[in-house]
Write a structure and sequence with these properties.
By secondary structure, this protein is mostly helical.
Amino acid sequence: MDQNTYLMPVADSFGQFLSMITRTKTKANYNQNENEFNLPDITFPAEALELWEENPRRIFNESKLFIPIYIEKLEASERGRKILAKFKTLVPTEEDREKLASLKKAGLLPDGIFE
């Protein structure tokens, strides 16, 4: 079939497109039945930050879907930014590198986090 060549792209990647249509959760529209760990605009509680400080490698055990959310949550606090700095010292396994590469390719992982 003929394609309409006059269409303009709305995003550079599918991941970027999805991020444009996904509803952002904030404290204002947060439902108490939802898991606050999966909401990017709500920072981690102090107990969770302690776990991240003790073992920053646990980021590699998280689902690819949640890594970008967790990074965004960590960027939202001073203590979280210190944890992000620890990510730069981690040596990812081959499996971890593949996971990170797919997130970068999809535009879901900021530059410099694991470098």
